[in-house]
Specification:
The chain contains 2 helices and 36 strands. It starts with a helix and ends with a strand. The strands form 3 sheets. The protein has a 28-stranded antiparallel barrel. It is mostly beta strands. Among the domains are: 203 residues, no CATH class; 83 residues, Immunoglobulin-like, CATH 2.60.40; 131 residues. The longest helix is centred in the N-terminal third of the chain and has 20 residues. Helix content is 4%, strand content 69%. Strand 30 and strand 31 form a beta hairpin.
Length: 698
């Protein structure tokens, strides 16, 4: 029953209402549970059959302790924080039903205890707070009406103390609450969901109130599926005296028609997302619309055809508060195409594709067509399988101005890096924002202070070197989301690009030996009567490699040689892996990687450089069934040189011991990163130790 209730909660699709109303609902749910659990059955009179029937009661004691420390050091500055937390809780859990298990089931969980926390910090926007002891009440109440019917309703309310203990929000007594309702209906061919949720998170440094709701419906028949949905969320956040209001509205429609005895189908989907952010730093209004159509048909003579149309439009308005400074950018793209595929038995597959592209932006346009032809031949040979491929493509792209790409999404850790998805980017037009882990809003970044830009041939690499305090998570392994807007270099030209190539792969001796080779050549021709700021691309790529495996070992060796007038390089890579169950209770995984990339002198750069990377990971698990004990250990090491020198280490471990009603869990996490930039050296050290003891009393 607890599993069932938990699964219901995880589907927590949510619905809006004002905070006061949701708080009233939460109080009503709480009062109803107290009434059901406390009023004697005789007091119900004729309604005694509706008195709650409790069939499971559990009591347990939880003792938790953790210590976290992070230090960040540069040439001119050093900051650190530490968090020590101890909690003692008693938890009482009951599950039961009213009238009948098919009428209403419920879960009631209450706990009480103390929390002792000590924070020391010299981070911006935070301060040391010393030891503090607080009372820590928690509860979770859930009820499902008609749980096994086609339609059912779930009501829930819960409160969590130390909601985000020491890892995201500094400040003791962080409390989170959730209150909501979920209605579901499912009777073929219909399915419908309507859900409401109100969430709060409060601490000394941070507060967040979020109300949201979601509704969706699905109609399903053998020949048609139709679905539609709407989601709305509004959130008010305050962190370090910065207030942010976020609003999100999402609309979606989708349908699929199946015909000719499932030999064809038409799939259509449309969506629109509007995101508004109002804060003291920046106001943002972003609207995105997509529309996709795809028609698939199985034709005679082993042919099939795909017809498709894709539409995408995004408009972004930004404004600095209390000023007349505003920016509006727009990007609209349309793609229309057809793919025709022919299969000759199971051996030869040939495909032809035609695509028409049109991209219109505030600062420039791109229009063009692409033709491509490819064939893949597969044949069983003695001792294995042979796969060979040929391909040819030609595109004619007309570029005008400097096309803008809005809000490209990339992810990276602090001190990490990523390469922009487009080539021929004008580095001077790059602007970046990072999503705050506290407010979910976006914070602008400053070049050379928060990130570095490295043009490499016709690509651009971004390296993160710091983040604003309002967006900096104390977790050193946190994966940040970045939005990057940029323009391409200015061109007034028609660019003709021709690419052709071939590949060959063998899978021998039951896939234990797999050599492969490939060759690709790309060349561009431009209309010289117009302006073209770059250099026509002329690139030849050779790849050769071999994959060897014999359990528990595997080895990949690969060599690439890219001869290019824009971005030439050679790359050697070796990747070895060992994966084995050493016994029925012991597992060991080892992985080592070495990669060396030599960049020759590239277009627009005076000299080349070499990048070296060496890394290794270890994962070990040992189980002791007689003692009900499990040990997990993981470690990583990475070292890279090139644009800068970087070393990082990490160690993670966990010990779990269960003995009847007793459970002990101990963990350790260590991380260290050292980076040498031209401007100086940066170091980051992270430590986390935790111990948890659980004892079931009854």
């Amino acid at each position: 029953m607890l599993t069932f209730l938990s699964a219901q909660a995880k589907e927590g699709l949510t619905v809006p209402c004002c905070s006061d109303a949701m708080q009233r609902i939460g109080r009503m749910i709480t009062a109803a549970f107290v009434l059901m659990l406390s009023v004697p059955a005789i007091a119900w009179g004729a309604m005694g059959q509706f008195a709650p029937k409790i069939y499971s009661t559990e009591g347990e004691v939880l003792l938790d302790g953790s210590y976290e420390n992070q230090r960040f050091t540069t040439e001119n500055n050093s900051t650190s924080r530490s968090n020590t937390l101890f909690t003692e809780r008693f938890v009482l859990t009951t599950t039961g039903w009213v009238y009948h298990p098919r009428f209403l089931i419920f879960l009631a969980k209450v706990s009480a205890g103390l929390a002792h926390e000590n924070i020391t910090s010299d981070y911006p926007y935070t301060e040391s707070q010393g030891w503090n002891t607080t009372f820590m009440p928690e509860y979770e109440l859930r009820a499902v009406l008609l749980p096994e019917h086609d339609y059912n309703l779930e009501l829930y309310t819960l409160r969590r103390d130390r909601y985000l203990p020491g890892t995201v929000v500094l400040g003791y007594d962080t409390v989170g609450t959730d209150t909501g309702a979920i209605f579901k209906y499912k009777r073929r061919p219909w399915a419908y969901t309507l859900a409401y949720n109100y969430t709060t998170v409060d601490s000394d440094q941070y507060s967040k109130d979020t109300s949201s709701w979601r509704t969706n419906a699905v109609y399903f028949k053998d020949w048609v599926t139709f679905a539609g949905g709407y989601f709305h969320e509004e959130s008010d956040n305050t962190y370090s005296n910065v207030s942010t209001n976020l609003k999100t509205d999402e609309y979606s429609l989708e349908n699929q028609l199946r015909f000719f005895h499932n030999q064809g189908n038409l799939t259509s989907n449309w969506s629109e997302i509007r995101f508004k952010e109002d804060s003291s730093l920046e106001n943002l209004d972003d609207r995105r619309r997509t529309w996709n159509e795809r028609l698939y048909l199985d034709l005679p003579w082993h042919l099939n055809v795909n017809l498709y149309y894709n539409y995408y439009d995004e408009t972004s308005d930004t404004e600095l508060p209390n000023s007349n400074i505003s920016t509006t950018l727009d990007n609209t793209s349309k793609t229309t195409g057809v793919t025709l595929t022919h299969r000759l038995y199971q051996s030869l597959v040939t495909s032809y594709n035609f695509t028409s592209i049109s991209v219109k932006s505030t600062t420039g346009d791109t229009d063009g067509t692409v033709h491509s032809l490819s064939t893949v031949y597969t044949k069983n040979i003695p001792r294995g399988l042979l796969t060979a491929g040929l391909n040819y493509s030609q595109s004619d792209i007309d570029r005008t101005g400097t096309p803008t790409f809005l809000n490209e999404t990339d992810v990276a850790q602090l001190f990490g890096e990523f390469t922009l998805q487009q080539t021929d980017v004008d580095p001077d037009t790059i602007s970046m924002r990072v999503k705050s882990p506290f407010t979910d809003g976006f914070v602008g970044l400053v070049r050379d202070l928060h990130y570095l830009v490295f043009p490499i041939g016709n690509t651009v690499r971004i390296q993160i070197i710091s983040l604003p305090p309002v967006a900096l998570s104390p977790d050193p392994f946190y994966l940040y989301t970045f939005q990057v807007t940029y323009e391409l270099i200015r061109d007034e030209a028609t660019i003709k690009t021709t690419t052709y190539g071939a590949s060959l792969k063998l899978e021998l001796f039951e896939n234990s030996v797999s050599p492969y080779v490939s060759y690709f050549h790309t060349e561009q021709d431009t209309n010289t009567s117009r302006s073209f700021s770059g250099e026509p691309l002329d690139t030849t790529t050779y790849i050769a490699g071999i994959y060897l495996q014999k359990q528990p070992y595997s080895l990949l060796l690969e060599y690439q040689d890219v001869q290019s007038n824009v971005n030439p390089y050679t790359m050697m890579k070796a990747e070895a892996m060992y994966r084995k169950d050493l016994s029925a209770y012991t597992r060991l995984h080892l992985k080592a990687i070495y990669q060396k990339t030599k960049h020759d002198e590239t277009f627009g750069q005076e000299s080349g450089f070499t990048e070296d990377f060496i890394g290794g990971t270890l994962w070990f698990q040992r189980r002791y069934p007689k003692k009900n004990m499990t040990l997990n250990l993981g470690a990583t090491y990475n070292r890279s040189t090139g644009l800068n020198t970087r070393q990082s280490y990490s160690l993670d471990g966990e010990l779990l011991w269960k003995l009847r009603q007793f459970e002990l869990r101990a963990g350790i996490g260590l991380g260290y990163t050292n980076i040498d930039y031209d401007s100086g050296k940066q170091e980051s050290l992270f430590q986390r130790y935790s111990l948890s003891v659980r004892r079931q009393i009854f």
